[in-house]
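Marked as duplicate of an earlier ticket. Keeping the data here for the record.
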Amino acid sequence: MIAPPNASRGYTSYNVSTPEPHSIAALPRPRPPKEFRTSASFLLKRMGFRLKERSLQAYESTGLSPYHHGVLALLDEEPVETQAMIADALGYDRSHLVGVLDDLEARELIERRRDPADRRRHLVTLTPAGKDAVTRLRAVAKQLDDEFFEPLSAEERHELFVLLSRLARHHDPRFEE
């Protein structure tokens, strides 16, 4: 405790020491404004950011990324695609996709060859190693989903999926059935 300069004149002393640990816990935690905490679009955006952070961390151990997973999963469903079709289907910037494809090709997970019908285009196919990789990446994605959505029951997860699917179909024609 430190006494103020004029303590001898009857002034009350005051404490300038560090607060006790139990009083620190009582301090209010910083929070977004109520306007944002009650906004579905803000919460969806915030959870999207959080899920993206977690997914990048989860995929890190594989040496691949969610972008790689997207390409491999698409090629697993559609065995031969052009680079442009891959970019359009996944919503990737075409110049960014080239780097992703270069990386996948260097790892021998995909193969690119000229389209015999149009030499300006490249056809992209999944290799057997790519098929194995997409299987491993699906397991990472499943674990990520299980951990992120853990607070929700199976019924709530399904309901969230149905609602998000409806929004996706409304706002992005790639999700139309």
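See parent ticket for discussion. The chain has one domain: 40-175.
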